[in-house]
Amino acid sequence: MEQIRVGFAFCGSFCTYGQAMSALEQVKARFGDVTPIVSEASAALDTRFGAAHDHMREMERICDRRVIDSIPKAEPIGPKHLLDVLLVCPCTGNTLAKLACGITDTTVTMAAKAHLRNGAPLVLAISTNDALAASAKHIGALMDKKNVYFVPFRQDDPVGKPTSLAADFSRVNAAIEAALQGRQLQPVVLGPDQ
Questions:
Q1: How far apart (Å, rounded) are the C-alpha atoms in residues 120 and 54?
Q2: Longest dimension (CA), the chain
Q3: Residue 174 sits in a domain of what CATH number?
Q4: Taking a C-beta distance cutoff of 8 angstroms, is the pair 114, 75 a contact?
Q5: Proportion of the chain in helix, strand, coil states, percent, rounded to 5
Q6: What is the structure's pLDDT at 2?
């Protein structure tokens, strides 16, 4: 097993937490050294998809380390060079907008800012209902940003949610490996049968 220091940041797309937890297990199995990071919403909100406390305990069990759950805990990621790659999975439209506009007011956006200052890769696994609407411009802006990469994504329900996009969580490890080589895993936009 190759030892790559991966940050795995969860944002509040709670309906994808089952897939994200599976991806977390795969990342841990592949890379070994994984630090869980959670947004304030992830740390505080109990939803029909589970209790926040239970989600964080599962992250800590998988990673065998404490969750980074505050801006002060995330800030040292940059100056101490704590990560080789940072994955935001799931990455919500809210977080996409903040990253695109340089807003650093959450644990996850602070982790990303601190990490990017080192010129290291940031990988985004998007999951947002407005990706082909209000979030489209933020996706475009981030695709043009140095050291930012995407897990390939597709429309997850073109009929019921025509502006929604979700990452293919089974491609997280491949996207991380590509980003560590300085390249975007292709194709980034997947068809229904890919």
A1: 31
A2: 46
A3: 3.40.50.1950
A4: yes
A5: 40, 20, 35
A6: 59
